[in-house]
Each structure stands twice: as structure tokens, then as C-alpha cells.
Design a protein that fits this description.
The complex is a heterotrimer. Chain B is α+β, with helices and mostly antiparallel strands. Chain B has a single domain, classed as Trafficking protein particle complex subunit 3 (Muramoyl-pentapeptide Carboxypeptidase, domain 2). Chain B has six helices and four strands; from the N terminus they run H-H-H-H-E-E-H-H-E-E. A four-stranded antiparallel sheet of chain B has the order 1-2-4-3. The longest helix of chain B is centred in the N-terminal third of the chain and has 27 residues. The radius of gyration of chain B is 17 Å and the shape is globular. In chain C, helix 3 runs antiparallel to helix 4. Chain C has four helices and five strands. The chains are: A alpha+beta, B alpha+beta, C alpha+beta. Chains in contact: A-B, B-C. The interface between A and B is medium-sized, with 32 and 33 residues. Chain B: Its main location: endoplasmic reticulum. Chain B: Belongs to the TRAPP small subunits family. BET3 subfamily. Chain B: This is Trafficking protein particle complex subunit BET3.
């Protein structure tokens, strides 16, 4: 069972609910008042966990010792966290895009699928669309119909198997 | 490491990149530049600026495509960044591999030297005396590099040093690292 | 033996003109036209333009061979698909070489067209083009 998909960019929130197969209204920036509390809570939890994960890694390869504001340790990436009722799978790109998939706790690994959503749908329909903004303003969602429809059908196909 | 990187990039170029006709590409870019010159009344400094802005818009989107295709992780140093840009980035998108040279001692600046430039095939700058001194024909490349690196938290200043179209010996772009951009964190959380 | 070469655009305007001298038989490549001939050359070419326009529809080849004769001077012509006319004024019949010359000039012209800053019917001022024409003269004329 897949419950929902969230996409956060470097600043804002764009959200989709596969069961309704329609994008819900949502959004806000990291720094402003978010309309939907659950989005804010989810983002906060993931952000903190991600920082903990990277800070708890030992400093393996600090190569460039000429600059002190470098922080390129061998990164440890957060993959998912689980509670009694759901598991949240997390995938982050180098450009700051965060993909979160909420499923039931029995599903173990969705990294591959999140990566698919990124490469086959986000890059194709959103990044390559020169008319869609790269830095979304607060309250703006991904408007591309193609993106929404294809992601919806992809996730529905996942739920069936 | 660099041999493996090169073969990986070759493999991506051969199998997973759609190819288009180079003349179509060159002529399209050429008409963009010449139309810009006409629109801005041959104010070549303004043309350079506009080309860089266009490049930045391309770069912020191209980086997503690049990350999706290569699945590259974070580079450990600016040197590695330079190697990846020249061996993987340029290879995938333009099928050229510029040379990385002229590293400064603190490792914060390097140059890319191009021995061929598909954007500028068959181009001769107009003969009005100003173009040869002021116009950087392929300035869109500088914008692309700047925009793309900005999305991965590197603030880099990119500019042309020399260009064969202007009569110099080689085409060279200089990249200077200004600073690393910090990740954005939600308000009230630090 | 000297040659006078002109490229005429679609509006009957000259895009490029050159006086060339032969390199064969000990020639040194400098054209040797008398002063009166120098003035007359463009006129001769211009007057044969009408003939070119008639002939170009009669045949489907691009090379029109010798189209006119002026007191011992022959005029050969070549029409590109975009109606640019290459005209050569020469004294001796040398059809095969002149045809090859025209074909290579066509290649040069194509490369000029690929320059985004060049529009059709602009005069060709590039020195590179000049030197390449001289090389072709050496080769064929």
C-alpha cells in the first residue's frame, strides 16, 4: 500500500496523493508559514534525521585541507524510517530535491522506485520544461499535467504488484 | 579513478544520449547569437550578458539531467569537480573533452581549454572592429557552468579568457571558486 | 592568361569579384589585364547575365559552360541552386578545369553561408575566402 508521495525542493513543498490521483493544494516555503502541518512535520523529521545520519558518520575522507568550510565527508544517506503505521522512504538528489514516499511498514526498499520517479518523470517533465520554474515560489506546485499523470500511473502500477 | 570515469562517460554517451545533427545545433545557436546582436544593436557587452543569463537558465535544469544520467555523488574536492565537468559533463552533452589546466596553488581556480567547439563551427565574427574585441561568442557555456554548479552549492565565477574566433591561439574558460553555499535550513532550527 | 571571377547575388548585385592570374606555364599568379580590359571586365560579365538567366532553365545541370564570347574572351557560368551566379571571364577554353573550379567555389560559398553573421547577398569580405580562392586558382586555372 502506498499512501502518498511528497516532493520537496530546496525551498518549497509540492505534494501529491496517489489515491485521489489529483494534486492536493499545499505548499509553503521552508521559512514561511506552511498551510499543511503534516508537510511541515514530515519535512522537519526527515531533515533532522538526515543531519543526524551525516553527523554520526566518521570523517573518512577529508581531502581538501585548504579550506575550512568544506564538509565533504563520505556522506551517510538516510533511506527510510518506520513507525507502527507507516514507513517513510527518502531520496535526495545533489541539487537538494527530496522525494518522500509513505507506504505501509512491510515494504522494505523503495530507493530504486524513487530514483525512477526522479530520472524518468521529474527530469523529463519538470526539469527539461523550460517554462516551468526551477525555484518554486511559496504556494506553487508542479503544474505539469504530464508529470502528474505519469507519476500517478507509475505509483498505481506499483501498488498493484 | 579517471580512467573509470572516462569509460563510464563514454558508455553513457554511446548508449543513453539522444543524438542530433551537429549542423542543426550550430546553426540554431548561430541564429540565436546573430539575432541577439541585431536586437541589441550590436551592443556586444549586453549580448554577452544575455547569453550568460540564457546559459544560467539552461544550467539549473541541465544539472538535474546530468545527476539523473550519471548518478554521480558529491565530489570530494574542487579538483574532482573540474575533472567530472570536463570528462563527464562536456562528454555527455557536447561530446567534447576539454583539458583541465592552470590550477592555482590553492586549488580554487582552473581553466578549461577547448580544442574544438561545436557551437562555433564555420563562424567568423563580423568585421566591424568591435565584435572581435568585445563579443564572447560561446558565452552561453559560461552561464551553463555557473548555473549548474550553483545548484550543487558551489558559487563559481566563470568567464572566457581567450577564444579562437577572436584570433587567439586557443579557447579557454576560467572557473574560480568563490565559496561553498550552505544548505538551506528551516527557520527556527539551528 | 588572366581571369576575372565574379559572384553575382540574387538581386544581380556582385557579392565578390577577383582578378586572378594563371599559375600554369610559368605564370606567377598575377593577372595581366590592360587598363581598358580592367574597366570592361565587369561590364562584359554583367551583359552576359541575361544569357545566364535564359540558359539556366534550359538545362538541369549547374555548370553552364561557355555562354558568351567577347572578342576572344570567353564567359563561363555556374548557377547554384539558390540562384547565385558564378561567372568567369577567360581567354582559353578549359572546360573541365573551370567546372572543377566552380564546384570548389560552391563548397567555399556554402561554408560562408554557414556563418550565422552572414546573410545571403551580403558582400564577402573575408580575407580567408580570398586566400582560398587564390589556392583554387593555383590548383585549377
Amino acid at each position: 500500500m502506498i499512501y502518498s508521495l511528497w516532493i520537496f525542493d530546496r525551498h518549497c513543498i509540492i505534494q501529491q496523493d496517489p489515491k485521489a490521483a489529483r494534486p492536493l493544494v499545499g505548499g509553503g516555503t521552508v521559512n514561511l508559514n506552511n498551510d499543511i502541518d503534516s508537510a511541515k512535520l514530515l519535512f522537519g523529521a526527515l531533515f533532522s534525521l538526515r543531519n543526524i545520519a551525516s553527523k554520526l558518520t566518521s570523517n573518512v575522507n577529508i581531502i581538501d585541507n585548504t579550506s575550512s568550510d568544506l564538509d565533504f565527508q563520505k556522506q551517510n544517506y538516510l533511506r527510510s524510517f518506520a513507525t507502527q503505521n507507516y514507513r517513510a522512504h527518502y531520496f535526495e538528489t545533489l541539487s537538494g530535491l527530496k522525494f518522500v514516499l509513505l507506504t505501509d511498514p512491510s515494504i522494505q526498499d523503495m530507493q530504486k522506485h524513487l530514483h525512477e520517479i526522479y530520472t524518468n518523470f521529474y527530469v523529463e517533465y519538470v526539469a527539461k520544461n523550460a517554462l516551468s520554474p526551477v525555484d518554486f515560489k511559496p504556494g506553487e506546485l508542479i503544474g505539469s499535467e504530464k508529470f502528474i499523470n505519469s507519476v500517478d500511473s507509475y505509483i498505481l502500477s506499483l501498488s498493484v504488484t | 579513478m579517471s580512467k573509470a570515469v572516462r569509460t563510464a562517460a563514454d558508455e553513457i554517451w554511446k548508449n543513453r544520449v539522444e543524438k542530433i545533427n551537429v549542423e542543426l545545433f550550430t546553426l540554431t545557436y548561430g541564429s540565436v547569437v546573430s539575432q541577439l546582436c541585431r536586437d541589441l544593436n550590436n551592443n556586444y557587452c549586453e549580448v554577452n550578458k544575455q547569453l550568460e543569463i540564457m546559459g544560467e537558465n539552461i544550467g539549473v535544469r541541465l544539472i538535474e539531467d546530468f545527476l539523473a544520467r550519471t548518478g554521480a555523488g558529491r565530489c570530494n574536492s574542487f579538483k574532482e569537480t573540474g575533472e567530472i565537468i570536463s570528462k563527464v559533463g562536456f562528454k555527455i552533452f557536447l561530446n567534447i573533452v576539454p583539458q583541465v589546466t592552470n590550477w592555482t596553488d590553492n586549488g580554487k581556480q582552473f581553466s578549461l581549454v577547448f580544442d574544438e567547439n561545436p557551437l562555433a563551427e564555420f563562424v567568423e565574427l563580423p568585421d566591424d572592429g568591435k565584435a572581435v574585441k568585445e563579443l564572447w561568442y560561446s558565452n552561453v557555456l559560461c552561464g551553463v557552468l555557473k548555473g549548474a554548479l550553483q545548484m550543487v552549492q558551489l558559487d563559481v565565477d566563470v568567464s572566457f579568457v581567450s577564444d579562437v574566433l577572436r584570433g587567439h591561439d586557443q579557447t579557454e574558460i576560467k572557473l574560480r571558486l568563490i565559496r561553498y553555499l550552505k544548505d538551506e535550513i528551516p527557520a527556527g532550527e539551528d | 592568361m588572366s581571369y576575372y571571377f565574379a559572384m553575382i547575388g540574387t538581386r544581380d548585385n556582385p557579392i565578390y569579384e577577383a582578378e586572378l592570374g594563371t599559375f600554369k606555364q610559368g605564370g606567377d599568379g598575377t593577372p595581366k589585364f590592360s587598363a581598358e580590359m580592367k574597366e570592361l571586365n565587369p561590364f562584359i560579365i554583367h551583359s552576359s547575365l541575361d544569357i545566364v538567366e535564359d540558359l539556366q532553365w534550359a538545362t538541369n545541370s549547374l555548370y553552364l559552360k561557355i555562354i558568351d564570347n567577347y572578342y576572344g574572351y570567353y564567359v563561363s557560368a555556374y548557377v547554384t541552386p539558390t540562384n547565385i551566379k558564378f561567372m568567369l571571364l577567360h581567354e582559353n577554353k578549359n572546360e573541365e578545369n573551370i567546372k572543377q573550379f566552380f564546384i570548389e567555389v560552391n563548397d567555399l560559398y556554402l561554408k560562408t553561408l554557414l556563418n550565422p553573421f552572414y546573410s545571403v547577398n551580403d558582400p564577402i569580405k573575408s580575407t580567408m575566402f580570398d586566400s582560398k580562392i587564390k589556392l583554387l586558382t593555383k590548383k585549377y586555372l
